[in-house]
């Protein structure tokens, strides 16, 4: 067995694993019940799936051209840095908006203090739909 056959097998396994993880992540996003559960699909499984596909691409084009592929390395680095940060920001936004969750989503966020949570949750329409009495007041003014 030559070296190229072994490398092609590794690249094929990475592509199959990447496609499987991306599919599972998209299924999770489509079938899970609430926002917090759906957040795990694209941030965990899909990120791992796209990472496997990008590593396979680096391997294939690196072998084909005989030199490392910088573009795929930068895409992978950018993906692995931005996915957890965006997931954290989405989760914090969901907590601040007091989105409803299914009872299976357990836990009570301790990082939200009483003064950080408004009296009424924000509506999708923005600040105009909120109670004008609590709008633009600091916790000490209430």
Annotation keywords:
142 residues, mainly alpha, Helix Hairpins, elongated
What would your notes on this structure say?
This protein is mainly α and 142 residues long. The protein has a single domain, classed as Helix Hairpins. It is built from four helices and no strands. It has helices at residues 3-31, 35-38, 40-65, 70-96. Helix 3 (40-65) runs antiparallel to helix 4. The longest helix has 29 residues, at 3-31. The chain is elongated and about 55 Å long. The termini are far apart. Mean pLDDT is 79; it is low at 128-138.
In short:
This protein is an all-alpha fold and 142 residues long. It is built from four helices and no strands. The chain has a single domain (3-111), classed as Helix Hairpins, CATH 1.10.287.
CATH topology assignment: Helix Hairpins
* CA radius of gyration: 22 Å
What is the CATH C level class, in words? Mainly Alpha
Assembly of the depicted chains: single chain
The overall strand count is: 0
What is the correct CATH architecture?
Orthogonal Bundle
| Helix percent band | 55-70%
Count the DSSP helices.
Answer: 4
Portion in beta strands: under 5%
Main sheet makeup: none
Question: Which residues sit in consecutive blocks of at least 5 with pLDDT less than 50?
Answer: 128-138
* Count of domain modules: 1
Order of helices and strands: HHHH
Mean pLDDT value: 79
Structural class by SSE content: mainly alpha
Shape: elongated
- Compute the separation of the termini in Å: 75 Å
């Amino acid at each position: 067995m030559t070296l190229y056959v072994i490398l092609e097998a590794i690249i094929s396994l990475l592509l199959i694993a990447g496609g499987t993880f991306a599919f599972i992540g998209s299924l999770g996003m489509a079938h899970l019940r609430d926002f917090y559960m759906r957040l795990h699909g694209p941030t965990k499984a899909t990120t791992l799936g796209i990472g496997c596909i990008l590593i396979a691409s680096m391997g294939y084009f690196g072998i084909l051209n005989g030199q490392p592929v910088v573009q795929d390395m930068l895409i992978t680095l950018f993906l692995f840095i931005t996915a957890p940060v965006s997931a954290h920001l989405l989760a914090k936004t969901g907590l601040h908006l007091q989105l409803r969750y299914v009872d299976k989503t357990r836990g009570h966020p301790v990082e939200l203090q009483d003064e950080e949570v408004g009296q009424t949750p924000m509506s999708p329409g923005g600040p105009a739909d909120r109670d004008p009495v609590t709008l633009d007041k600091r916790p000490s003014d209430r």
